[in-house]
Model the fold of this input.
Amino acid sequence: MRILIGGDFSPTKANFELFEQGDSEALYGRELLDYLAGFDYRVFDFEAVFDGAGTPIQKYGPLITTPATCMPGIEAIHPNLFVLANNHAANLGAEGIAHTKAILAEHGIESMGAGSNLAEARKPFYLSEGGVTIGFYACAEHEFNAAGEETGGVNPYDPLTTFDEVREAKQHCDHLIVFYHGGMIEYRYPLPGERRVFRKLIDCGADLVVGQHTHTIGCAETYHGKPAIYGQGDFFFARPTRNEHRLSGLLIEVEATESELTVSYNVRMKPQDTIRLATREEKEQVLAAFDERSAEIQDEQRFAEIYRKNLEEKRLVYLNPLLGRYGRSFICGALNVLSGRRYRPNLFRRRFAELDWLALDNWLSCETHREFFGDLIVDEWKGRS
Done:
């Protein structure tokens, strides 16, 4: 059995018209269409929700929706399964999820990873063909998207349940593929904790763990003989951002027999608002960089250095919200520029003493404080809406 796994997929305003027209060659190119047709089964992460039902939720981040009139262009790649466990499937709430699943079903496309409640969202999907059964399990990090016992959403990663669910899913298939929607956007390496999660998923029975969401090709490692892919990159996500991260995306080729599952890679390119299969030279260049990063994370000292550099680069992105409205103001931004980017760091040093940072550390590190602090923050933003 040959399975193709594509990354994040979402029609956007830049190409709605081409999708509505079903102009497959303009969207994908003939070479990529022929390549996709060579697989028995095609799986993608549908990182959107069809509009027409539901109400936009409150969240930090873009509320991406897609018109159902884009189905002609979506159907052109003959998707068999869409994974919905991501941070956009719940953008229109439970009603939007139900609406999206119904539209996909009408067009003969299976979906998984989201539902009207947690029990539905966490259900694995099984594919049997030629005496081989492949299981698919999907979960996502919490980003205003989690299903509850009686509320719709996506299957959230939960260390108290996820690993047990993976063990159970593996009991019903020859090979289990796990999709984990998380990681840091446009960061090509796993965070230390993310790496531990992927390895634990393999310990619990996953034969392949695919990380999606980062919108960039990351790296990979083989753990106990099983591949863990830390960032697949997009399949088709024509956001306004055009940079090296969005330019390329991995196409994961899975070959499965009853006794063996093997993985290889191809590459798709996104020169503008459409995509195409990479040339041989482009593929070699992208995969050489992928292999280089994969080798880097095997050196624990180098892995720690890369993470430390990322901490420094993202420091103010994460700390600025602590300054509130003033931190977002024109005056604060102007003073920061005029000071050579030293104003904001100095502002933190003046406003926050060591004891303040220790308190925040305690609230985020201690399990009891973290739960209580998180609930307080939710009460605050909900109370202002």
Residues 48 and 63 are 9 Å apart (CA to CA). The chain has two domains: 2-298, 302-383. The mean pLDDT is 95. DSSP finds 16 helices and 16 strands in the chain.
